[in-house]
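Service request form, structural biology core

Requester: graduate student, group of Dr. S.
Request type: structure prediction, single chain
Budget code: on file
Notes: please return the result as structure tokens.

Sequence provided:
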Amino acid sequence: MTRQNKTIGAALACVALRQGRRVELQYGGYTRTVEVHAVGATAIGHPVVLVWQVSGGRVSGQAEGWKLLRLDELGPMVVTQETSLAPRPGFNPDHNAMPIVHCRCQAAETPQA
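Core staff response, request fulfilled:
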């Protein structure tokens, strides 16, 4: 993926997050449906997106769950009309693998006792 495509991928992921929509993308040879929670970069500058994978292929054997995907390794990405349920339980807006943040959803509020 070129630098321009990484920028477009980050921008598209942030649009999906702000619109509350799921994204369908190609990663690791699989089509995946995900909910974007944060977009940014690692400490060494790799562009990444933190997602909750809803469905699709997987390398790890786990179809659903948290994934930190590198934007420079993504294939085609489309914002769908499906509603995202972000933020999912367990979302940490201060994810330590992403010290540089371009956009992120707010953590769900914990009910007060």
